[in-house]
């Protein structure tokens, strides 16, 4: 992998990640852009104890542009985009409309491919491996920023999720705090460790799924994917490396090599859940499955409030889920979910796992 860092016309950082060591990236951003001005701030909710990012400048962000005006496609002739070069493998740049910026963290965009009409599931294993290297590199770099305590790599796919740019891309958030979801995991981890005399909760969860087996979606030598026992979403898969590591930096070469095979297969199965594959009753012509893919990594900040827990106790894992519950129907977060944070799942986890096994690649 070759990494080339440059600057856009308004001063934002852009990084090319190339498979070839001899690739030259010297294109200049020719747009007449003014320096980026953001008004992001983080406010703490005194009742819930969580944080909310206030970012009013995002109201003016690009919204569903036509394909020939996509800001994530490479620049061509006089059509100038966020990527100055005429081609790229993987590229990461500071978001022009960040939710978090300056002392409040950092937001970046990750473009998985220059092909506008593609998706992550269409990538080759080599391309997916390069994305993994970019995620890992950005996790390492952002962890050194004084304003970043936790790094979150994720992808939103589909208009139903709220995606406003159709080009295959994801994002990386550098939060200035430990996120509420991660804090809940760390508290559960600490409580389990105390109650069991030192057992690791993540290890026990994975061991239970492997032992029971009916929620396993796929398993390889170094990875296991399963629908969790108490899945929140209709189709939700958690992907764990079998050797527990706290973050992407901890993955060994064998796990990195195997990851693209496993992850691409999961994504392709998600695209087949509702299209009639594998003997299902759903009709053909269903649009691509909307999903969120989220990497859970240990915070880089201090963990004193989680007594007895260290970073090494946390288990890196990827959570992949869709808000579609059946063909043509979405799972909306209504009163119980949005008002009380109590999820109600219409699809039994065992049935979801069975369906995801049915649509395996032949």
Spatial sequence of strands, sheet with the most strands: 1-2-5-6-8-7-12-13-11-10-9
Our Rg estimate from Cα atoms comes to 21 Å
- Oligomeric status: single chain
Residue stretches low in confidence (pLDDT < 50, at least 5 long) are 278-283
Major β-sheet profile: 11 strands, antiparallel
Query: Whole-Å distance between the termini?
Result: 31 Å
Question: Share of helix among residues?
Answer: 10-25%
What structural class should be given to the helix and strand makeup? alpha+beta
Shape: globular
> Strand portion, in percent?
15-25%
- Counted by DSSP, the helix tally is 6
What's the rounded overall pLDDT mean? Answer: 94
Sum this structure up briefly:
By secondary structure, the protein is an alpha+beta fold.
What are the defining features of this structure?
23% helix, globular, 362 residues
Task: Give an overview of the whole structure.
- This protein has six helices and 15 strands.
- The longest helix has 20 residues, at 253-272.
- It is globular, with a radius of gyration of 21 Å.
- Helix 1 crosses helix 4.
- Mean pLDDT is 94; it is low at 278-283.
- The protein has an eleven-stranded antiparallel sheet, with helices on both faces.
- The chain has 362 residues and is of the alpha+beta class.
- The protein has helices at residues 125-143, 180-196, 201-212, 253-272, 335-340, 349-358, and strands at 2-7, 13-18, 41-44, 51-54, 90-94, 106-111, 150-157, 169-175, 216-219, 223-226, 235-241, 291-296, 317-322, 324-326, 329-330.
